[in-house]
Amino acid sequence: MINNIKIIAFALLLSICGIFDKASAGVIYSSDFSKNSSSHHASEFTGANAVTTAPGDAFTGNKPISFLGVLTQGATATLRLTGLNPYEFVRLNFDLYALNSLDGDGQDGYGPDIFSVYANNKSIMSNTFSGYLAPSTTTQNYPVNNSKAGSGQSAFDVPAFGMQSTYSMVSIYNISLNATAGGDGTISFGFSGRSSEPWPNEGFGVNNIVVMSNVPEPVSIFLFGVGLIGIGLFARPRSLVKI
Known about the structure:
Layout: H1 2-23, E1 27-31, E2 38-39, E3 42-47, E4 51-54, E5 65-71, E6 75-81, E7 89-100, E8 114-119, E9 122-128, E10 139-140, E11 147-148, E12 155-157, E13 170-180, E14 187-194, E15 202-213, H2 218-235
Antiparallel strand pairs: 1-2, 1-15, 3-6, 4-5, 5-15, 6-14, 7-13, 7-15, 8-9, 8-14, 10-11, 12-13
Helix pairs in contact: 1-2
């Protein structure tokens, strides 16, 4: 039994080391679309890569704010990262701006208005968003089906970073997604806004993008859990058998 415990403990130690080694690898790409962007592996954005700079308001501390977009009517911006390990597990974090009069699931006769993210042409997110101020009859399927407009948002700003238009409002969502690099160590993220109306009526913006490399893989976490269970089973006191 002691040998079994030693084996499981050693495997558990390897899992712990692997998890913390991967977790400490850190950021390989980040951008707030200002001059402070950090790019070590990127060829930056292609496609609909225009950057909007809003004048700012009380929400931004009355300072201008820049973001990728506005993405509307199928416009897609693509970020290509290179130099990763083959099939490396990465995490993508970003702020999504749902701007102005997005129609969500389309109960008002417009829409649906959808924001999607692709990793190497595979969809890893596709959700409808409604930008109407409450009360609203339009729902969205983020974070779940038939959610009210603005559900899951981390912040709401009127007049949309100081931008002046017919509708000036923005719901801000903190998005976190997992993806895997290809066998050649590259990964391309596509950010796509499919709205039924053009800007300035409605659209999507993206900001504060962070791509983390070598975050703990599900297999490592699974092995870590198995090791804990194994130690618990073998360390459990055995009842004495009377002869």
